[in-house]
């Protein structure tokens, strides 16, 4: 048998044995493919723009989850990373004329530095104190931004930054694959040993430390990683919109990212991404376009939807769906479809 | 200048103290971070505006109606929204944010975004050491001091107050001692929202009402309770004094101070909790029971 054919058979086997056995794993590639072929279905610039922004915010929400959902260090000021990267990218682009491929990584590095600035002092704080202390950082920076309008553009922000690309479709094909790849990387991180340690820190920091884990180092790592991904999102946002402003640092954005993440389900990575991909197009496109809801009412509807969903599914929409459709095998701890009687691998009775 | 700073600083501190004490109470007793706390304050201010200015009711009557109505809304939202999700910490945060956003949007829909004003309860002003102080400001200060004393008396000297403090210290043991914990939590929620509503009534005549007016006090009271120590009443008071004065010092003395006042206040908060992570008067909670 020749080699390509062998790879194809193996891939098919993998698909049948690992992907199609679970509805969640089947939906995931389907959504990815749907997102990738969307420009072929609709050429509407506005729709593509909505999905581009949704993808950027999905990276952002997943990065919040990486820090707060996994290590339990609830960050109320996540907009700091987004804003720092957006402003860094914008300033570098406007003042030094650097291209987006340079400014976005530098912006992300600036956000990592911001992660260290927040992370190091906050290591001593826990729980609610940590949440409220992190809230302060973006607002302090926001005050500074307003106070030096000659550099930061003040309330108007910075305009006419270089766009990612002249064409909306090319921007779409830069940002959507970025989201898929970055989301996958974040999921891989949380699925690795590091992710396990993050879980341990959230569940019981003292025990984690007693098990020989340097929790300080891992908490800082979580802040930096989260800053990195949020920073990439911030840089993409500035270059896609070709402007940036105080709204990237505001309290509302910090709250918004928590709303998206909790709506989808925290400590999953895919939950927050799904949360944004459902909520953002819903409020920005479906409501205004098809249900002819007035623009002023969409925030109200957004809040009501979030409230209702969380009242009945307090762990988040995606977590709720997952718990309804999947069971964990009591013997080999593998996930199984909810309607199976026996585990698909070890044939133990599922309860 | 100095006298201005003192007057405005005292008024701001008083309002922050009222809000922070209420926020701190419900956090201490029920471990609920109620981010819609200042939305209730805004709701009270707007209700007074709509009853007094738009419907033409007597001002005192409309203040009383507004406070009662806001307490009713607070209890309702506690019972049907917050209490149902409170085991999930993150979900509680989101539900209270969503509640605040709903109140904000409802006000935006009902009254529009333009700034509104409420007539003062008592007109005129007095000169103290050569500074003109509005009578309304004096009234605000007086009411704040009275209310804080009353709250302190209630918590320290009455049977319900002892029950509240016992629940704050240890829910399970309080429950075993025959304290009706859910009822205590309901009572504290009513008190907390009531204090927020009164703060709204006191602020309404002194400032302009906009649908976004809840965000800044929310940030400030979060800073105040962290600075003073979560769950500590005197900590909230001291924290409110420090931050209220810090804000007004910056506004009056620094260039572009109006922009930097929040930054400076939050920086002070950060510095304090970096030196003393549990805040000035915070109680270090032992590992809490699950």
How do the strands and helices of this protein lay out in sequence?
The complex is a heterodimer of chains A (351) and B (290).
Chain A: H1 3-19, H2 23-41, H3 45-71, H4 79-96, H5 100-122, H6 127-147, H7 149-152, H8 168-191, H9 193-203, H10 205-210, H11 215-241, H12 251-264, H13 270-290, H14 298-312, H15 317-325, E1 326-328, E2 335-337
Antiparallel strand pairs in A: 1-2
Chain B: H1 2-30, H2 37-54, H3 59-85, H4 89-111, E1 125-128, E2 131-134, H5 135-157, H6 159-169, H7 171-176, H8 181-203, H9 215-228, H10 233-253, H11 257-275
Antiparallel strand pairs in B: 1-2
Helix pairs in contact in B: 1-5, 1-8, 1-9, 1-10, 2-3, 2-4, 2-8, 3-4, 3-8, 5-6, 5-8, 6-8, 9-10, 9-11, 10-11
Query: Cα-atom Rg of chain A, whole angstroms?
Result: 21 Å
Evaluate the radius of gyration of chain B: 19 Å
Please write the string of helix (H) and strand (E) elements of chain A: HHHHHHHHHHHHHHHEE
Number of helices of chain A: 15
Number of domains of chain A: 2
Largest sheet of chain A: 2 strands, antiparallel
Number of strands of chain B: 2
Q: What's the tally of helices of chain B?
A: 11
Q: Any idea what the shape of chain B is?
A: globular
The residue fraction in helices of chain B comes out at over 70%
Ends of chain B: how far apart? 52 Å
CATH class (first level) name of the largest domain in chain A:
Mainly Alpha
Beta-strand residue fraction of chain B: under 5%
In order across it, which strands form the biggest sheet of chain A? 1-2
- CATH fold naming of the largest domain in chain A: ABC transporter involved in vitamin B12 uptake, BtuC
- Largest inter-chain contact set: A-B, 43 and 47 residues
Low-pLDDT sequence parts of chain B? 286-290
